[in-house]
Design a protein that fits this description.
Helices cover about 30% and strands about 30% of the residues. By secondary structure, the chain is an alpha/beta fold. It folds into two domains: about 5-140 and about 325-355, Alpha-Beta Complex (Quinone Oxidoreductase, Chain A, domain 1); about 150-290, Rossmann fold.
Length: about 350
């Protein structure tokens, strides 16, 4: 017996063009049907769309030609199971489509997790195919899908920078300082002060007060004031926005003193890409799973999970004082948050948890 699924899809050539569709899905032997309970939507999900072809994000939950399903992080419940290792009623956490439900094929099942190796996802990166089996609501249950995937990236960038002795930099410039991944990195770097580099946030005039109030940055400046920064010090830049004009201004100001330039996010989707042959270090894209694999090999997966979990719990406690969780329910609410996020209208102090029921 088939199940009808409602799915939110976007036009890959024009992200503002989106719609809900219905389709039928079958649960075969060895598979389960997961009903999506709630998920977060952040600027990081816009990055998934913008980098969808480059980093293969569209491949996880394929749609018809020219369309895509933007992945999100959240919780789901198993409502139908033809897999002997997974029982109906179980709650899981992980990488989801924006939909009412989806079919999974659990393999490598342990007491606390499994890999979803359903058809096209079988060959994709296991970082995104790994699901936690959770028995009930957990500490920071709403904050987890909003911040934890982003904080995992923040934790890995912080670790990667420290692993490379910050490339000799004395100051770290975080571009789009109010982005949640940027806030997580600033939090991590702040814990390393005064031994680590000075942490400088570049942000818009409208977000400057919010960023300053966090206490994670040593200094906060607006985009137009890059020239006020000390260009005599070895500097690294981490960009979360993908605005080529801002990146170019940073490179030209610091010149050869820019010892590392890393791109993490592309949330400013309509901004121009940076020109080639900029002075200073050549910009490169940070792919978090590479550093995760390195540390998992070195520390063991349990060791990695322990370090990340401890760091996440501390960040979640610190975040609770500045983030306001907004809940939205239904197709219209989901489409509205998507549209506002696409247009950059979301307050950085807000986190959005969405559900269809």
């Amino acid at each position: 017996m088939s199940t009808q699924i409602r799915e939110f899809i976007v036009n890959r050539a024009n992200y503002a063009d989106s719609k809900w569709i219905a389709r039928e899905a079958e649960v075969e032997n060895g598979q389960v049907l997961a009903e999506i309970e709630k998920f977060a939507f952040t600027a990081n999900n816009i990055t998934y769309a913008v980098a969808g072809d480059m980093l293969n994000y569209w491949a996880f939950f394929p749609a018809d030609e020219g369309w895509g399903k933007i992945p999100v992080w959240g919780f789901a419940k198993i409502v139908k199971s033809k897999c002997p290792d997974i029982k109906e009623g179980e709650r899981i956490y992980g990488y989801l489509p924006m939909a009412t439900s989806f079919v999974m094929q659990p393999e490598k099942v342990t007491g606390g997790s499994f890999l979803d190796l359903y058809k096209q996802r079988r060959e994709l990166h296991p970082v995104y195919n790994s699901y936690s089996r959770v028995s009930a609501e957990r500490p920071h249950d709403d904050l987890e899908p909003i911040l934890r995937p982003l904080y995992t990236t923040s934790f890995l960038i912080d670790d990667w920078l420290a692993d490379n002795d910050f490339f000799g930099a004395k100051q770290a410039v975080l571009i789009s300082a109010s982005s949640k991944t940027g806030l997580g990195l600033a939090y991590g770097l702040h814990q390393r002060r005064p031994e680590g580099p000075e942490v400088i946030g570049l942000t818009s005039a409208g977000n400057k007060k919010f960023v300053e109030g966090l206490g994670y940055y040593d200094k906060t400046v607006v985009y137009g004031d890059v020239a006020a920064l000390d260009a005599s010090l070895p500097t690294l830049a981490v960009d979360f926005a993908g605005d080529g004009d801002v990146i170019a201004a940073v490179h030209r100001h610091f010149g050869d003193k820019l010892v590392e330039s890393t791109t993490v996010g592309l949330s400013h989707k309509d901004a121009p890409r940076p020109p080639s042959n900029l002075p200073g270090a050549k910009p490169s894209f940070f792919f978090a799973p590479d550093q995760m694999k390195k540390r998992s090999d070195e520390w063991g997966r349990d060791g990695f999970d322990k370090k990340l979990g401890e760091s996440w719990n501390e960040f979640a406690k610190a975040s609770a004082r500045w983030i306001k969780v907004e809940h939205g329910k239904g197709e219209d609410a989901i489409a509205r948050v998507y549209s506002d996020m696409l247009a950059g209208k979301i307050n950085p102090a807000e986190g959005h948890i969405l559900s269809l029921k």
